[in-house]
Amino acid sequence: MLRKLMHVGPSMTSYEVQLEGVRENVGFASPEFLEAMRNSLEGLRIVVGADNSYLPFILPGSGTVAMESVTSILPRKGKVLVASNGVFGNRWKPILDAHRMEYEVLEAEPGKSVDPASIKDKLSSGNFASLVFTHVETSTGVRADIEEICRKARPLVDRIVVDGVASVGGETLKVKEWGIDAIITASQKGLASPPGAALLVVAKDSLNNTAGDGYFFDLKNWVEPMNTYLKGENGYLSTEPVGVVMALSHVFNDIRAEGLENTIKRHRVFSEALNEGLEEIGLKVLADREHWSNTVTAVVAERSDDIVKFALSMGIEFATGVHPKLKGKYFRIGHMGYFNYYDVFSALSVIERSALRAGINIKLGSGLTRAQEILIKNG
Ligand code: PMP
Question: Where, by residue number, does the polypeptide cross the bilayer (predicted)?
Fold first, then answer.
């Protein structure tokens, strides 16, 4: 059966994107690949709101590779504050441990976001050089108050690093305006490409004195290669995921054609319609209303793992919950990438039927009506 992919990554893509990189044999020094690399690096810089004072990076790897390599720009003198809203916020801990860095963690309960004021208080109280936090926490669907956090933290630290793995391509980002030193992401989420590439956009002045251990994971070794690729020339350091970059380039062209603001608005409106619909059915969105994200929704429901199984048998792949405090008690919907009008209704109708099959007493059809109202309200 043809399946709709509403997992939290890889996310839903288009056939054209899937075919890029497999249509032809493409070499890593071919003109087609070099143009795709240049276009993707430029596109990446634009979708996060950066300018030429930032350098974009595309590395073979994944989100975790991007997280680990960005540690090379964190000063070794001074601690790191990790503001964690869940599983992926907590992933910084083993990474910082592996690089023998000192850190402290402020952790929110599932569905909540660490309060910007408590981040400010913590940073003022100790010897912190860096702040790292997750923009959209994929385990809970919570969007952090990114602008306010940056405004409060900027005078207090040398480096602000944001994990945008589940937000880039679906949420407004103004890294330059907000004073963010580095944002990381991966190919398979909001940028709707196959997995295989780690993506970063880093302020050039924070690349002057990197302190990374390792070769592959020290960003300074990638500066010259990326500058070369930006000129459309072969900057080989390690073989890039050629097909993934071809796909990414296609996605950036699609975003350019739709208009970045329209792409983000599409995600915002569809997310609101979906979330409002879910609550109308009688299910609960895990994230606080003011922290609903454009890209991931976590839904609290009895027999959640069964709902995911039933939905798969009806052709939609959702994700189970992974937060250790709530395992089995919620499921997740990824609405990144090529998520469309009709996908809102497919998701809601399959959830309604799956919940009924799981024996949950819901108001059949009510979610679809509510979603229609939200879409009409938003034109
Ligand atoms: N950060 C966030 C917010 C994520 O959602 C993920 C992946 N789910 C990662 C980091 C890690 O990315 P990857 O699985 O590509 O290594």
Answer: none
